[in-house]
Write a structure and sequence with these properties.
Length: 168
């Protein structure tokens, strides 16, 4: 994923990613799949079945294949932002895993990256969603992909990840 930032921002991002990776490792994984490096245009946003105004709900439009026992972690970063403000996480529990509707939440301080925290209320803006599949030793994503989402701030947004791009 590409971010426009200075060295200090890069160091901060590296520290944040390392912290999240260590949290995932400490939790024993959180499920997910890796994606190829792709950057599609803005995702068409449609309301999720039960998302509250200002939320982003993620799922997959196709299954993540061959990533059993790993963790999918998705970060939301404001356009031109250096620090993710929200995350979604799913433990991959089958060899053909369909990501269930998962609301993006605040980045918690617990050791479980997939732990329960409050849903993020996104203000109006453009966000980069960076999805990564993590497996032991959880130091970096095995596969990753990103996409851009425009959020009106007053409605709920539903984004479907491409499971094929996160598959083996």
């Amino acid at each position: 994923m590409a971010f426009d930032m200075r060295v200090r921002g890069s160091q901060l991002r590296t520290g944040l990613w390392l912290s999240v990776v260590l949290l995932v490792a400490a939790s024993g994984a959180c499920g997910g799949g890796a994606a190829s490096d792709t950057t599609p245009g803005p995702q068409t946003a449609t309301p999720p079945p039960s998302g509250a105004p200002g939320t982003i709900t993620i799922d997959s439009r196709s299954p993540i294949v061959g990533q059993l026992g790993k963790v999918l972690v998705v970060f939301a970063t404001p356009k031109n932002g250096a620090i993710p403000i929200s995350r979604g996480c799913a433990r991959i529990t089958s060899d053909r895993f369909d990501v269930p509707p998962t609301i993006m939440t605040e980045i918690g301080t617990s050791q479980d990256a997939c732990g329960t925290t409050a849903a993020t209320a996104f203000p109006k803006g453009t966000y980069t969603l960076a999805a990564g599949i993590y497996g032991p030793p959880y130091s970096s994503p095995e596969k990753e992909s990103s996409l851009t989402v425009d959020h009106s701030g007053d409605g709920a947004v539903h984004v479907s990840l491409d499971g094929a791009s996160l598959s083996r």
